[in-house]
Amino acid sequence: MKLFKYIFCFGVSLAVLNTVSGQVAENSNLYQTLKTQDSILFDAAFDSCAPEVLETIFTEDFEFYHDKGGLTSGRDNFLAPMRENCANWDKNAPQPSKRILFPNSLKVYPLYKDGELYGAIQHGIHRFESLDENGNYQKGDEAQFTHVWIKDAAGWKIKRELSYDHQYKPN
């Protein structure tokens, strides 16, 4: 009987831990919020070229880890090249590159401390395409990304970003 109680309590504990720390459902508020934030991020970075929007998305101590470009420390250092590119971008010309999020690749994992949601890990797979000399988008690298989002009084901000496993896949 004691063994049965032990096994039962262990099973219940595992079930609770799995539901608390696992990936959230796609229809959850957290998933939808961070999916929206992801869209705002990449719209500002690629479609609308809006570094002022990106400034509100990243923490000041933001760190960007890239498997080919290395580490960039600090929000201002990360945004400096974008500010320069956006200042020189002709808004009447097509966007020189774009990002495509792979369907069903986005996953969100909540982070708790003492039962309070303080952050989340967002993971997905995307591809980038760039305009060639004829004005046609050409497939670029596919890559995985991981964002560590932190929740503060102003909302959700990215503290760390990893961009890795960049591979050219023509199809």
TrEMBL record:
Residue ranges annotated for the DUF4440 domain, each copy included: 43-158
Against InterPro entries, the record matches this protein to: DUF4440, NTF2-like_dom_sf
> Under which name does UniProt file this protein?
Nuclear transport factor 2 family protein
Q: Which organism is it from?
A: Aggregatimonas sangjinii
